[in-house]
Amino acid sequence: MLEVKVVNLKRVKVDTLVVPVCEDHEIHTDNTLKSLIGAAKAFSEFKGKKGDVITLFEPSETRITRALFFGLGKAETLTGESFRAFAGKAVKSCINAGLPAMTLATPSAAELTINAETLFGTLMEGACLGNHIFDRYKMEKEKTPVKTVVLMATAAQKKAYSGLAKSVAAVCGASVMAREWVTTPSNDKRPEAFAELIQKAARTAGLKTRIMDDRWLEKQQFGAMLAVAQGSSAKPRLVTMEYTPKDAVKTVVLVGKGVTFDSGGINLKPSGSIETMKMDMSGAAAVAGTMMAVARLKPGIKVVGVMPLVENMPSGTAIRPGDIIRSYTGKTIEIGNTDAEGRLILIDAMAWAVKQYKPDTLIDLATLTGACVVALGEKIAGVFSKDPELAAGIVASGEKTHERCWRLPLPEDYKELLKNDFADLANVSSSRWGGAITAALFLSEFVGDTRWAHIDIAGPAWAKKASDYCGAGGTGFGVRLLCDWIGKL
Ligand code: BES
Ligand code: MN
Ligand code: ZN
175-487 has which fold? Predict the structure, then answer.
């Protein structure tokens, strides 16, 4: 879908041209473009202010059918995210108008405070991500995605950034897959079905995938994960995806929470909290998506995805508050609340992954706590790690990709709050406060000395409303973040 091309606007026939415009500064150098912008700004309703839009049809001395101008505001305020948002909006307006192809007038990085690679990369990301429509469950498909997006470039830029188009397409395609899995309703992605969806995707990418069933989990004594699963008529699954390059010396393991529906269990969630709980497998979706991208990006390290998949349901066979269970490591846990299920499936998967793969770094992603959403809101994830460098690396990747992360502490003395009279640990804190922290501390008890980070994505994994380059529903949060982070290793 993405192409980087040299386009002569005087000679070439262009169906739809989209042009970003600033109010205070000329960010384009092409003379034809500059005079087109002049023509647009001659209309009083278009000054290039943020949010201004205007369309000119068949502008003179060109072979352009329509030119869409988007105001971006003041040039000095523009970041990579401004260009993602612009490209996303541009693609969406083409989709809404039923236009199959779009030519994007790339501004000159020399006129901006960001570099050319960031400029091209973010424009490509916004265009790719904004082109996703989830209409699988609609009888009538109202909209069609754009087929081609051409980024205008100089010959040198074409040479420099055609490869970038391929990697952006790989990463954003994977991000879109994660979105689709998250938005898919729970009746179509119970653990066995979700495992097969992942495996089917992985086959096309040539990734080694294994699906472990409930009998295997019993044999291996995944006691905490099985305890969560026991209330559902759907059997749990553990999925692994492995990318192993020839001379890899380092191993990264990614673990993703895969609760295909979180009803809360016997501690049933009330109306208002339960409706979106099909998204409680967003961690697993992000990990599976990242693995899909990794298979195409081919980094020089071994990367493994581990996804524990369960459905958390109340029933006559469900775990009860007060039950004591034995986890994979042997540590016992008293269930204080059956709705604190994510940490139970994660600890077995993480402890097993540590033993199985002996990773240099382990990162888990999970829609783990409402408390993290209270702390950081719906757009920023919480990062927890005892390793400052690892935390800083993740936060930096969050800045770059705009999948924003903020480090929260892991205070040793708060572990007190997880102490229990009858078992080694309780699955919930004895305090009402700091729930994101105590959940992370609970996880920390099961990774040994492994260099580890936990990312709580309960807020940003899901969007109630569409935004510039994302529709309503699953956001795919974590895929671009992890791909960027892996790319730095
Ligand atoms: N899946 C939820 C967390 C969640 C909340 C995700 C909101 C997305 C949006 C998790 O399993 C949960 O229920 N956590 C409880 C923990 C509590 C019982 C200690 C919570 O946050 O209320
Ligand atoms: Mn829960
Ligand atoms: Zn949950």
Answer: Aminopeptidase (3.40.630)
